[in-house]
Design goal:
With about 350 residues, this protein is of the alpha+beta class. It folds into 2 domains: about 150 residues, 60s Ribosomal Protein L30, Chain: A (2-Layer Sandwich); about 180 residues, Alpha-Beta Complex (Phosphoribosyl-aminoimidazole Synthetase, Chain A, domain 2), CATH 3.90.650. It contains 11 helices and 13 strands. The longest helix is centred in the first third of the chain and has 18 residues. The model has no long low-confidence stretch (mean pLDDT about 95). The structure holds cobalt (II) ion (2 copies). The site of one cobalt (II) ion has 4 residues, from loops.
Amino acid sequence: MQKIRLTSLSHGSGCGCKIGRKDLSFIIDNLPEVTDPDIIVGTSTADDAAVYRIDDKRALVQTVDFFTPVVDDPYDFGQIAAANAISDIYAMGGRPLFALSILAFPINTLPQSILKEILKGGINKAREAGIEIIGGHSIDDMEPKYGLCVTGIVDQDKVVRNDRAQPGDVLILTKPIGTGIVSKAIKSGIASEADVKEAVRIMSFLNKGASEAMVYAGIKAATDVTGFGLLGHLYGMLKASKVGARIRASSVPTIQGVWNYAEKGCIPEGTKNNLKWVKEKAIWDSSTSPETKYILTDAQTSGGLLISCPVDRKERFLNLLDKNDCISIAEIGEIVDDQENRIWIV
Ligand code: CO
Ligand code: CO
């Protein structure tokens, strides 16, 4: 039997199939405002997850995330989709409690063994995060899709939000970027085995250690880097916090193989849209290459946490990150005072 390449069945891939910021803000801007007084984090700041008060001390954190195959191996796809969905709980400083799965699968045309592998990958990744998947919903669909709805819990005074970044804060990123470009290379069939392996390792890595270190250090502002790319998610945080930022492009860690694929023109549609979207806010150094621009706005799947850390907590936080399980710890820039939420890339 011929091996089925999952990425060949999807129109986009991973978080790159997100609806773009432009369309999304148009849709959301026209929805009625949320008013329940128990909502701690709602729709107004476009944060990673919803936070809802349940008693005097605690709040529920809830998120849902699913997408089309980003790699060809079904088990890896399941792992990555689960790690990505749980990440939004971690980005809010929460602890996941349990999850439900969301699944679309061409049940009459693809072997069920593939579906089993996807689910197994998801279950094992959820267990690594200390939770179980206790139900879900599935539909018959030509294009496979998988993800989770995750419920978590957080102490109200420990919620980490995207609207608390302060001028002077240091920006710390906990995973290298470029997985969107590598995924495009996988879909095009030109990615090397070693590069695929490394991309899978990074995308399926849980942001648990980084999140726990962040909460322990008393940090208040963060987001995770997914479909809108590093600069897109940074901009989301700047807008919500009413500040600007300066990024040192050379300090941003990149995934193995990404420069090679970017130079070959392997740029996902989602990444191109992201670059257009940040155009008015990004102030590029005149020497910045087109590849650098694409990589800094590359649509990530299951990226790292982007943390805005007050200078006086930095040393303690970096020590905690170092002790916890983390892929990379990079200081990539700082928050500056700017009402127009601009990003200077140097
Ligand atoms: Co997120
Ligand atoms: Co998400």
